[in-house]
Amino acid sequence: MAPPNFKNIFSLALPLLQLVSAAPQAGASTTLATIVVPTTSISTPSYTPTPSVTPRTSRNFTTLNIAIYPNPLNLNGSLCNATQAPEIRTVSYFMLDGWAIIDGDIIFGTEADIQAASVSNTPVITRGEDVEDLTKRSMSIYPQSSAKWPGGNVYYKWAAGLDTARKNDFLAAAKLWTDRLPFLHFIEDNARPDARTIAAVAGSTSSSPVGRVAGGGTILIGASRTVGIVAHEIGHTLGLKHEQKRPDRNWYIDINCDQIEEPKDCTVTPWTGNANQFWMELPTAYNWAGPYDVNSIMHYQAYTYAKGNIPVITGKPGITFKTSGRDEPTLQDARHVCELYWEDCHSICGDGILSPQFESCDDSNNINGDGCSSDCKVTIPPNVCVGTCVPGACGTRATCEVFNPFTSATHFGDSYCVCQAGYRATGVSATNTDLQYRMTWKNGYGDQTHRVFVKPGQDCTELCTDVNCSQVPLKDSCR
User: Within 10 Å of residue 85's Cβ, how many Cβ atoms?
Assistant: First the structure.
């Protein structure tokens, strides 16, 4: 049986979650914004690269039901009314720096906000220390602005006193996304009311709202982090959810709830506490366009929230599941964002499809140093030779040779001459690689290493000591 295929259209019904975007301040009024791309995220410890598990400070979870209002995804900057009947979702949240966090690292709002969003009249379920039951009311339905960033322009500002290390990590993580998706722009703007605040938080948990919210919202960057973790949070900011919560995930991975760290309850439906973030979502809860991506930067790793050295997540037979090393957005991550921002996304760098208006090259990867940079700009790598030399410029027993020693790269670099087989540069020390050297290259006879390369005008009249001219050093790059 083949895995289910989710229709790749952007009009798939999405939930509207009321999220509070203003920072929690004493006496401040709250402004509610509708998130079109619903909230779910990852906690920074999920990127632990080894099965060695460092216990976290125990979290006190509160579990309650909130209403999710499905409706067609808004166009950028448009308004809509959510009029469809809501779906009820059970969430477990904990508090971090005054924010209610669901799904591991998603900022829902303040505790008062999430309590107000509850639609259950029964007492809340608490994990850890008791949490006072607050009077709950149903989420109101208001027309709200879209949760996408219009035009792909993500505005941000630094929190007062934010350290340089966190700033650099954010900018490096943002570049990972803009390299893949050149329509995206991260713009520092302290004056915009919707600019996302980049702030510090103690501990290992970084977090973000999903999508754009009124008032901007906040990305909290933890003390224990990598650039990949921050890129994951930016993925949420752009509107992505956790990959392992897809409704088709059971075709690809297994979740061992027994191995999730406490507090949790795997005996109820859905799971609660730390296990709640591993519960699958409904097919109608989000635009799940595209194939499942076990290597997505939005996917939890094997030991995410593991209580010990046994993995929580394992791949199905035949599925190659990376236990660690999700350090940058995958091609499928980029395609998913492009699907969400279909009005603005014009090209994806690294997909092997050249978009001449926006790319000068596309070699199907985002690797620097191969002639096509990580942002699909032609570069001159150090290990590539030019394919021409000036006729008549070569000295005695030296000729122009047109070839590319690194066949996967483009021809760039200086012109050169090649000595006749069995000869090397005249009057030059055999070990002086500034003036002569050998390289591995190919012609119609296969791999060649015995020819000596010299600067134009250099004579080649000295005989080599052996057929391979082995006294002349072999280099991996052009002079």
Answer: 7
Hey, which of 14-23, 58-67, 139-148, 229-238 has the most confident mean pLDDT?
Answer: 229-238
* Residue written as token pair 């076990």: 294
467: left (phi over 0), alpha (psi -120 to 50) or beta: alpha
Closest CA to 321 of 298, 291, 301: 301
Alpha helix segments (H runs only) across 126-265: 164-180, 227-238
Phi first, then psi: what are they for 331, rounded to 5°? -60, -40
Total residues found in the chain within this entry? 479
Q: How far apart are the first and last CA of the chain?
A: 57
State the pairing for strand pair 462-463/474-475.
unpaired
Rounded CA-CA distance 441/406 in Å is 7
Lowest mean pLDDT among 109-118, 222-231, 440-449: 440-449
Which tokens is 265 given?
């309850």
Half-sphere exposure of 319 (CA within 13 A, CB side): 18
d(CA 84, CA 61): 30
Is residue 265 within 8 A of residue 279, CB to CB? The reply is: no
List b or e across 445-467, with b for residues whose CB sees 16 or more CB atoms inside 10 angstroms: eeebebbbbbbbebbbebebeee
Report the predicted TM-score, pTM, of the whole model to 2 decimal places: 0.67
